[in-house]
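Worked problem 6 (solution included).
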Amino acid sequence: MATLFDPPTPEATLFADGGSRGNPGPAASGAVLLDAGGSVVDEVGRYLGTATNNVAEWTALVIGLEAAARRGIRHLAVRMDSELVVKQLRGEYRVKHADLQPLHRQATALLRRFASVDVRHVPRKQNALADRLVNRVLDQEAASS
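Solution. The predicted structure is:
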C-alpha cells in the first residue's frame, strides 16, 4: 500500500469535494486533478441522487483516485476540506457508518495503486475548484429536473 506520509514530490494533486443540499439531500461529488505545474488535467463530477454529505465526500475521493490511476500517476497529493474523511483515511478515526464502509474499502484499495500518496486536510477556500465542480453538477441536475 502507498505510504500516506512524506512521499516524493507529487506528479499531480487531487482536490476532491462532495456536498449535499440537505443532509441527506440531492448530492454530488467532484474531483479535480492538477499536474505538477498546477494545470487542470482532469475533472470528474458525479450526481449521486439523495445522499449524505459524508457519502458525497468519500465518493469524490474514490472518483478522483480512479481518475489519477487511469492517468498512470504514481505519486499523488490528495487535498480535501473534509477533516472527517482525511482522518478516517489516515486511520485516526474509525469508519463506523455502514454507508461509508464500502467507500472506505474502495478508496483504500485504490490507494494501493500508487507508489506514494500524501493526504491532507485543507481549508475550504483552498478546495475551491472541486467545490465549484460539485455545485455545477448540482445546479445542472436541478435545472434538468
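Discussion: The CA atoms of residues 51 and 59 lie 10 Å apart.
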